[in-house]
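<backbone_tokenisation>
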Amino acid sequence: MRRLSGVPVAAIVAWASISAWGAVAPPSPVTGLRLGPIGTGEAALVVLIAEPAGTSCEGRLKGTFSILGGAASAAVEAAIVPSPGGGCEIPLTLRFDAVSADVLGRVKLDAFDYRLSGDLGSAEGTRQVDWQGRLPWNAVRLAGSAKATLGRYVKVHDVAMGSVGFTRTTVNVSVDVFVPFRFDLRILEASCAVEVNGRDVAVGKREKVLLHAGQSSRMEIPVTFENGAVLAAAGKTMAKKGKLEGRLKGIGRLKLPAGELDFPFDLPILISLL
């Protein structure tokens, strides 16, 4: 190996590279995300970071936050403030029309990549930060009620009577689903059950549904009731009023390149069986 003044040339090259690009980057302080409140066009998003050792949460960041290789991104211009759960946080707003269709192909079922970069100003001056890494999906917390959030996007529109038999009754449940993104969603399967007074009295299933971008799409689900189970669960109340109040609970299965993603739904439902 060539040597220069007794120093290996390879060592000089390595030192020069470290000087040019900086030493090995310290670990990112980002520990998770908090999502919500969620509207129909945008969502509040909070980046949670560990509090710097020996200092308090301070400074102001101007830059960009992105996940999934930039398929979803948002501008950041906010102060770093203490988080109620400990550590610090940086609030921002994620607009759904800024989410590209590439997000579907980049979703992994176990974790997601992120990047938070920009200029961080403080009393000591301004420095550039580039925090990036990978977090499991359970590092994302939902602010507020999941049912309330779901109610903005998924609603039971109507229930139409189908066939009536001695042991079974079939109805068609119309469910409206709003897609806030600029791309369509393809539902592989939606399976559900109707629960009355804590008991399942009906089941339903619908396959291959296309939900259109930026609008509400109607999904028809045929649901079959077991008449005996309905009477046992609702009893005299239904017999007198002819109305069945319950909840439509189930799973929607979204097909992704990385696999199948399930999302639960739980909706109030009112059915007239008489």
